[in-house]
Amino acid sequence: KARKLILDAKMPDDLEKAVKEAYKDLKDRENDMQSVAVRSSATAEDLPEASFAGQHESYLNVRGADNVVRSVQKCMASLFTDRAIKYREDNAFDHMKVALSAGVQRMVRSDKASAGVMFTIDPESGFDKVIFITGSWGLGENVVQGNVKADQYYVFKSALKKNFRAILQKKLGTKSKTMVYSSSKAHLTKNNRTPKKKRDKYVLSSKEIETLGRWGISIEELYDKPMDIEWAKDGNSDELFIVQARPETVHSSKKDTGKIKTYTLKEESKVLVD
């Protein structure tokens, strides 16, 4: 009900004017900008005691001032999606004290190249001496949402800092889907089946992997904590971009990351599926 009330309401005139003016300024700075990404960022998403990154909506390939305003409003309404409400209930957050901002960024043409996620700590073990990078063809939403099996790369931090060869491992993902722009007004993006030739090819070169690794180290040193970072490659310019960075909250908040726990099942149940 709260979500519908926000979506049906008219945005205050001063806020709508501010959004449109900021969008115009962005267009003036970026002469060849075709579309933007409107990304949600809320105060309760990434906390040391609770992590639910991506619980609020973001919108890609948004064109025109009116559509930007509408997307900002939809971001605000996503504070009251079912999963966002449950998350706050589970973590005892006051629904009325959560703040949300909507960032508007130039859209990187990763639909023509690749995008992915980078952790400055191993997300599985919490090992902090490596950088873990994932990537797939097209827009990064498929990687963020776990809709594809992405390429995986491990980079050794200390070797990278000394300009030694630092890539420890490269693992080819299936990358079955490629998210690209859509011409439909109802759906701004769509998923296409990835051709086999591209499925069998890494989305990043060794040089690009190490470049992202160096950027990851710089971002981690800036914030003085392990980071969860989203990157994108522009298919028109072949440039790499960092589009989002937030604290890693799963392992970095644990005090016993150096310990390994072994669990043993003491009972056996009836086999339901063989």
Attribute tags:
six-stranded antiparallel beta sheet, three-stranded antiparallel beta sheet, 8 helices, 13 strands, alpha+beta, 274 residues
Instruction: Figure out the total of helices.
Output: 8
The biggest sheet, with number of strands, parallel, antiparallel or mixed sense and barrel status, is: 6 strands, antiparallel
The N- and C-terminal alpha carbons lie at a distance of: 44 Å
Percent range for helical residues?
Answer: 25-40%
Q: Beta-strand level of the residues, as a percent range?
A: 25-35%
Order of helices and strands: HHEEEEHHEEEHEHEEEHHEE
Strand order of the largest sheet: 9-8-7-6-12-13
Q: Specify the structural class.
A: alpha+beta
- The averaged pLDDT comes out at 89
Count of DSSP E strands? 13
Low-confidence stretches: none
Shape annotation: globular
Q: Any idea what the radius of gyration is?
A: 21 Å
